[in-house]
Amino acid sequence: MVKQRIFFGIIMAASATLLCWLDSVLIWRTGSGEQVQGFIWAFIAEAMMLSAVNEFSKLVKGKGARVFPLASYIGASLFCLSYFLKQFGFAFEISQAYLHLIIMFAAVLSAVLLSFIAQGRAKTNEGTILNCGATVFTVMYWGFFSSFFLAIRVEHSISALILFVAVVKMCDVGAYTFGKIFGHTKFAPLVSPKKTWEGMVGGCIFSAVTGVLFSVIFSVMLWWQGAIFGIIFAFAGQLGDLAESMLKRDAGIKDSGDKLPGFGGVLDIVDSLVFTAPFAYLFFNIVG
Q1: Single pTM value for the model
Q2: Burial classification of residue 77, based on how many CB atoms lie within 10 Å of its CB (0-12 exposed, 13-18 middle, 19 or more buried)
Q3: What is the DSSP secondary-structure string of 175-219?
Q4: What 3-state DSSP class applies to 250?
Q5: Domain boundaries, the chain
Q6: Which of 96, 158, 177, 266 lies in disulfide reach of 86, CB 3.0 to 4.6 Å?
Q7: Are residues 197 and 175 in contact, defined by beta-carbon separation less than 8 angstroms?
Q8: For 192-211, what is each residue's pLDDT tens digit?
Q9: Are 81 and 146 in contact (CB under 8 A)?
Q10: Residue 76 in contact with residue 139, Cβ under 8 Å?
């Protein structure tokens, strides 16, 4: 299992590096001076989000609820791509902020209205609150939260996005390593029995070092800000992982899927990233 995880982890890291490079050079500049960027990451974020929605829908189904496919896919997609699509405001001769507002409104409206329409087609009132609630929650959590990947990419830089992803995922590496070697004090035994405080400390150390190195290499922020960023998002990422663990335990499953050998499903990979993305975007806005 460990060798398999390392092997596929290296493949995913190498693939992500190549895609980030492609994303950094694939920029469309219009004759009027406007530019649109983030094409590759828009595809990555959308594919990741749709896979997460699909896995989460199956998880919810085990609890007797139903996530309506059309409502969840359309609503979540509009949310997820909103920061990318707003760059096309020039095509409609409106500001990016205004187009972004329109897209966000359309996302909410489609999620709610299509949920009620889908429930109405079932010709029964039973499960209306449960099904519509599950659908809207799915759209907000996996769609709205995922939108901040592209928010960081479009409004800051590909370097900022790489820093964020590296910090959060290196926490997983540090937590796993320290937990295996030193771990004995349980962190959240009812939710995730294998997590330990020693692992948490290791994750914070790995993330802090990663934050410093990537901040210096990419000049995203000052080195000490990178260290603070690393510690904050190491802890926040673990909370995101625990949040998904709570959902999985309620559904009575260990992994959200089996698409990624050694890791489980897409949710098991992106849970900490999706949970922390909005706060990372806020952090980047604060430090400028």
Answers
A1: 0.89
A2: buried
A3: HHHHHHHH--SEEETTTEEEEEHHHHHHHHHHHHHHHHHHHHHHT
A4: helix
A5: 1-155, 158-288
A6: 96
A7: no
A8: 888 888 999 999 999 999 99
A9: no
A10: yes
